[in-house]
Amino acid sequence: MTYVCWAALYEGNSDRAYFNVLIPRVIENLLITEGIRNSSVMTAPTVELGANGRAIEKVVAEACAAQDAFHFVIIHADTGGRAQEAGIANRSVSYCEAMHECCAWPQVRCIVMTPSHEMEAWALADPSAITDAYGFKGRPETLGLPANPQQAERLVDPKATLIQAIQEIRGRRSPDRMDQLYPAIAQRQSINLLRQSQSFLNFEARLRLGLANLGCLPI
Questions:
Q1: Tens digit of pLDDT for each residue in 192-208?
Q2: Are residues 132 and 207 in the same domain?
Q3: How many structural domains is the chain composed of?
Q4: DSSP state of 118
Q5: Which residues contact 144 (CB under 8 A, 6 or more apart)?
Q6: Tens digits of per-residue pLDDT, 161-192?
Q7: For 4-27, how does the pLDDT look when each residue is reduced to its tens digit (9 = 90+)?
Q8: Which tens digit of pLDDT belongs to each residue from 30-80?
Q9: For the chain, what percent of residues have pLDDT higher than 90?
Q10: 3-class SS at 67?
Q11: Which of 41, 97, 110, 113 is the most core-located residue (most Cβ within 10 A)?
Q12: 29 closest CA partner among 211, 185, 183
């Protein structure tokens, strides 16, 4: 049995709460459906990077010092507006290039994860996961939720859309902590629906290459 271990660099606590549930689900799905060896995935990152900030040199120093503890690294960065997308992607790739230069880390196992605008664009890809988390029986569109993952990716402010929907469900009741809501959404949402999101497909393609390099998936 091979236990796939991973390290991660997140932008914030909400991102951590969501991705720490979603990422192992996605990896497990690929291992089950496409795997060529008996493999399992750790349910949490063995290393979380960024303790000293997101500066490239600091993150790379952390990653290289701990490289024996994981098989690949996931670098998360929201893209913001379209004008920022190319710059954010290039900066994220810079972590991978610098890690390769510092400790010869294989760039194929440094995986950039860039949801469109914000992480919430992925959380909104499956509205039923949101309504199920609250036991809401109405139709998702009555809450202003997007009809499909493509619409979610086009939202300028997906976080605001999600928060507004939650407020509609809860009414005057005290608000939930978002770091508790995001794992509930990530646990429930359909990976197949997420695959209708282009930014998710881009991440999954990179992830598939990294797992193939490990020998867990066919090349």
A1: 999 999 999 999 999 99
A2: no
A3: 2
A4: S
A5: 161, 164, 165, 168
A6: 999 998 888 775 555 667 788 999 999 999 99
A7: 999 999 999 999 999 999 999 999
A8: 999 999 999 999 999 999 999 889 999 999 999 999 999 999 999 998 766
A9: 74
A10: helix
A11: 113
A12: 211
pTM attached to this predicted model: 0.91
Mark whether 98 and 33 lie in a shared domain. Answer: yes
The span from the first CA to the last CA of the chain, in angstroms, equals 19
Instruction: Give the span between the Cα atoms of 124 and 194, in whole angstroms.
Output: 9
Domain range enclosing 186: 120-190
Give phi and psi for 71, each to the nearest 5: -100, -30
User: What are the start-end ranges of the H helices in the chain?
Assistant: 13-34, 56-65, 82-103, 120-123, 127-134, 149-154, 158-170, 178-188, 191-194, 198-214
Residue keyed to tokens 């949101």: 130
Q: What's the length of the chain?
A: 219
29 assigned to some structural domain: yes
Sign of CA dihedral 133, 134, 138, 140: negative
